[in-house]
Design goal:
- The chain has 163 residues and is of the alpha/beta class.
- It is built from 4 helices and 9 strands, in the order E-E-H-E-H-E-H-E-H-E-E-E-E.
- The longest helix is centred in the middle third of the chain and has 10 residues.
Length: 163
């Protein structure tokens, strides 16, 4: 099972403002560049979201993950990374997008379940907010698979977890 943490991060390692806002990404949207998103989205079979990320998605005009099964994690629903991965495997799913947020990413990292990290570093310093990984985890070695830079100043780094 592949779990890919595909995320945009400010240069100071934040994925959202303190209130969960992502408006800082708007200047990079609506251009002719999709930063590889369409190809990535076509390659995944499921979506994993924390409760706050899920609630933020409900504010969008359309559900952004149409046609993909998804799981929402919260303290109250009892989902754990390992149990959901087992359920996805049982359904024959092989590749899932860990959308976030930071607490969920930290939980998957702590469980050793993230196989790939694709991080788009956005040339913005937020100063405060939700970190890329909002919680402790083990030291992990990563191997750079590719890097791409875009005219917007975004640099996308793709790493696999070294087992």
């Amino acid at each position: 099972m592949e779990i890919i943490y595909y995320v945009a991060s400010s240069l100071d390692g934040l994925i959202a403002t303190p209130d969960g806002g992502i408006d800082w990404l708007k200047p990079y949207e609506g251009t002719n560049e999709d930063y590889g998103y369409a190809e990535f989205y076509a390659s995944i079979e499921a979506v994993l979201l924390g409760r706050a990320t899920y609630e933020k998605c409900l504010e969008f005009p359309e559900w952004p993950y149409a046609g993909k099964p998804y799981w929402v994690f919260s303290r109250s629903n009892g989902n754990t990374p390992a149990s959901v991965v087992a359920e996805m495997k049982a359904r024959g799913l092989r590749r899932a997008w860990l959308v976030g947020g930071g607490k969920l990413a930290a939980a998957f990292r702590a469980a050793g379940l993230i196989t790939e990290h694709i991080v788009a570093i956005v040339p913005v310093l937020l100063g405060a907010g939700i970190p890329l990984f909002d919680g402790p985890g083990p030291t992990q070695q990563l191997r750079l698979l590719s890097s791409r830079s875009f005219a917007s100043g975004i640099v996308q780094l793709r790493y696999e977890t070294v087992l």
